[in-house]
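Box S2. Input/output pair 1.
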Amino acid sequence: MQRIGVIDLGSNTTRLIVMEYAPQRCFRLVDEMREAVRLIEGMREDRMLQPMAIERAIDALHMFASLCHATDTSEVIAVATSAVRDAANQQEFLAQVRQRTGLVLRVLSGEEEAYYGYLGVVNSMPITDGYIVDIGGGSTELTHVQGRAFQRGVSLPVGVVRYRDRYIHSDPISKVDFNALERGLDEAFADADWLHATDAPTLVGVGGTVRNLARIDQKRGKYPLERVHGYQLSLEGLERTISTLRRLTSEERAAVPGMNRDRADVLLPGALILRHVMRRGGFGQVVVGGQALREGLFYEHFLSHQEHPLFADVRDFSVRNLASLYNYDVRHSEKVREITLSLFDQLQHLHSFGAWERELLGHAAILHDIGLQVGYYDHHKHSAYLVLNSGLPGFNHRELALLTILVRSHRKGDVSTSEFRAVLDLSDEARVMQLSALLRLAEYLERGKLQVVKELRLEFVGGTIIVHTYLEGDGTAEIWNANQRGGLFRKAFGLNIEIVPG
């Protein structure tokens, strides 16, 4: 496995991610660091980066460079965005960074910043048509995506630190300052008349501001998942957060559940920026993305062998990436998938499920045994933990919960949905029960991991389903085990089941 570091020097925060990867096969995040450097703080009309801000930034970059060196991360991509892009003393700053840290910063244009954010989003979420809003310390990027392609990207000088410094002169914010900030947003977004939910209904929000707003909304509603990627933040929920934050001082905001303390003084302008985008475009909700510019830069590197740095199928790659990281048994998992989907197709008239359930079931079959890397005993639970906590880019929270339950239920025990009820539909209890029954049956028909079952044919005799198994080799253990584990199938479908050879 190779390592690469990606550093994003933003106007408010600078971040480092360290990725470990096998070229053209798989990757994972192995380390990350962040520091609130407030690089744009104090920048006036002369557009000069201030000495204290410069020192904070260089200290953070030196720390990041040291970590990369200590962890044998020899390749580092380092970029700077809005504050450095706008700075009159840009060249002096870049020279200082290179001299004192050894890092060569690439200054991104506004369109490049939007583009790399787009790469991070479309390679981690199933977005085909829509818009992306990335709210930073000094700027906000708006991107239009059509057919998964980058159509348009603009960078507006609207950022949480920039607008705090320009408009907020009271704590808590006064009505005068609040109204002035909103008027400033009206002016800044006057030319963004191409932002319409009617054209593409999906709005994805990225950046630390959006993630923090999502976390506050989750804490308020006691959300069951510790994951913001894929979370759907409603305009109504955002309005509640704004109503709370505008009444509080910065110190009081820091105590709000879910608040990142170093964002307490800038989150309100960030919330107002997001609300303005949602209102202007007519969006009732924003889907929160956990990947953006840094990941986009990594994807450009990881997919450099392709003409376009995009995964053909985000969900399929996400599943196989996770499976590869835990050295899954490819032949066994593919055979379990084949048997599971054969059962699914032949029982179509009983369950009436469609392509969506079939896809999820196939993905669960690929992932069901990854927990063996932790240990054999309770490996179904280990697999479920890895699925739930890996993130699995491309899947929404309901789908992630269903996959977790399916993987956890593939060996034994009852099928429980209780911990995920807040993200599941009422129909999902019966759905996951029947899908789990198929996966469990397939697992035991592949008990010896020798792919002895070559074909299945189902016969319906009264209240019993007879599964004829066509074998290549000795399938005694598989047939015995599958018959022993038929209880969940009987419970899920209300029918007896008998597995027989030939």
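Box S3. Input/output pair 2.
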Amino acid sequence: MSAQRSVLFDAQGPRARRITLGFNVLGLVLVAGICWWILAGLAAKGQLDAEHWDFLFTSRAWRNFFLPGLESTLKAAGLAIVTSVVFGLVFGMGRLSGLAPVRWVCTVIVEFFRAVPVLLMMIFFYLWLGGLGVVSPRQLPLYAVVLGLTLYNGSVIAELVRSGVQQLPRGQGEAGLALGLSRAQVLRIVQLPQALVAMLPSLLSQFVVILKDTALGYIITYPELLAAARRLGSAHSMLQSLLMAAVLFIVINVLLTALAGWVSRWLSSRTSGRTRPDATTAVDPV
């Protein structure tokens, strides 16, 4: 272990360890002081009194606000994640196409939607679809949120796919071509599965971004979790209501991280394979 550590970085001496420990203690004291200052300010204004928190634990708050808002958030995020992955895979593979026109078109589309703010796209689709009248007014905010999230995050995922495939060793593609596979088959069968496993942490981060960006939907009246918390807080205490919404977002992100870790381990076990012992060949004595 000591040999591995010496390769990665130089071991700290006694003086460096004391300095590091001192900075760590100073950081902890600073964080504790900030937390105490915030709590003291809240207590001075009565924000820590039980009467400002009791409403969060009533059945009415959860039945009429938090649970419906959480359902709307998960619905929009789930739909946007699925459609973003499909969009990203299609246009990411398109950017790797051997046909120049396909590659150029996919590049223009991806770069355009990566540059446009998500909120602007949500507002555009909300007004455009509303003007066309092809979507019911009740479902219009959901469609606008999902479309905006899909185009932006799908473009980011497409770039992740492209960069993930290009970072693979060149021998992967050359071996597939040597076996008689076409370039599209090499990309689909050999390179893409390995790239997906390698880019899973970045993909997870993008899923978290999708989940959090659903909160932008309240601008176009989508009843997601943040909007529900704001409605509840307007009748009781806004700070406590928003803190509960933040806790719910954190819990969902932790569960999403755990799920991604399980998927990563499962994919690694599926792609790594098992090593079989080599068959020994008996050699007759000379």
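Caption for Box S3: The domain at 54-270 is CATH 1.10.3720.10 (MetI-like fold). Residues 1-7, 275-286 have pLDDT under 50 and may be disordered.
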